[in-house]
Amino acid sequence: MAGAGDARGPGPAAGEPPPQQRGACQVFPERPAQGKPPQEGFLSGFFTNDQKCPLMLLKTLETNPYVKLLLDAMKHSGCAVNKDRHFSCEDCNGNVSGGFDASTSQIVLCQNNISNQAHMSRVVTHELIHAFDHCRAHVNWFTNVRHLACSEVRAANLSGDCSLVNEIFRLHFGLKQHHQTCVRDRAILSILAVRNISKEVAQKAVDEVFESCFNDHEPFGRIPHNKTYARYAHRDFQNRDRYYSNI
Ligand SMILES: [Zn+2]
Asked: Catalytic residue numbers?
């Protein structure tokens, strides 16, 4: 989500498999119409997927504490996010929920695979973490798999992808260190969804960066395990901003 003319890579940074079906295919090199504007002209109470997507996105941007913090952090880093410019609701191939397209600094939302508001919020949060990483650092998404691995670890760790309620639904509850295991597994799956590499290579990349990237909680300052934590993190971020602006 860096400024205009930013072209650090020729295609996608990441594609996310939905939680219920972790196997996914590579979808973004075949994006049919980049930058397609959201559909307009909502009629009556009946919405199709391509009409629901921008409405759910708007609600997520305005109300979700994870997203509000990330939007503030992007703005603070000089990469202000514009709803119409930086998000694109599209139909995607396979089971992918969304992705960050580094070549256009756009977040793709797979309207045919995002099923409800909570899912929309998780996808937007996850992709905004990639966008934040893209903004703050020179990320070699395509030439250095460890850079991708680091951002996937951070996105899985901080987006709520591995929050307790999600995990209970997956019937994995009760293991110590489970959050770390979930983050590692999801990071590996996200890499495999967009890179044609072996599972062993993906695992090695994740393991090499895991400790430092798992402990990098920016811009949250903590692991926001639920919306209450995310609200606290947002408040602290705003106070941090205020402190610096008073110097
Ligand atoms: Zn990702």
From this structure: 127
Residue ranges making up the domain that contains 116: 12-21+49-225
Ligand 1: centre distance to CA 129 (Å): 8
Residue 183 covered by a domain: yes
Whether residue 72 is contained in a domain is answered as yes
For residue 124, tell me if it sits in a domain: yes
Q: Answer yes or no: is 5 within a domain.
A: no
CA dihedral sign of residues 16, 21, 22, 28:
negative
What is the mean predicted confidence (pLDDT) over 201-227? 95
Identify the residue whose tokens are 């559909």. 39
The alpha carbon of 142 and the centre of ligand 1 are apart by a number of angstroms equal to 14
Share of the chain above pLDDT 70, in %: 73
Q: 217: which 2 tokens?
A: 């909680």
Residues with a beta carbon under 5 angstroms from ion ligand 1: 14, 152, 155, 190
* 19-33, 66-80, 103-117, 190-204: least confident range: 19-33
How many A from CA of 19 to the centre of ligand 1? Answer: 12
Name residue 227's amino acid: K
